[in-house]
Here is the input.
Amino acid sequence: MGEPKSRYAGLVPHLMVDAAGRAVPVLPPAPRGDEALQGYHLRRDRERLDHLAHSYLGDASAFHRIADLNGAMLPDALSEAPEIAIPTRTKAR
Here is the structure.
């Protein structure tokens, strides 16, 4: 979309018809990255994935990489996980 670092950058929207009959542009799901495991983080109370992404990856907006590595479609799915897999700082190629 608008951000060059977005995982949606370069994806082409498709037109879908909503319940009212209007054509609405919709993005396809973002591709999951190939992530290498750096290690595990033992979760503390009130830690969010954006906090962990900032700490381990140097970019709070990279929280989706942590969610992907842990098999979570949404970050909230990991809110009760006691242990979080952390990807390496740079993506695997």
User: Anything to note?
Assistant: The chain has a mean pLDDT of 88. The chain is about 15% helix and 20% strand. The first strand starts at residue 14 and ends at 17.
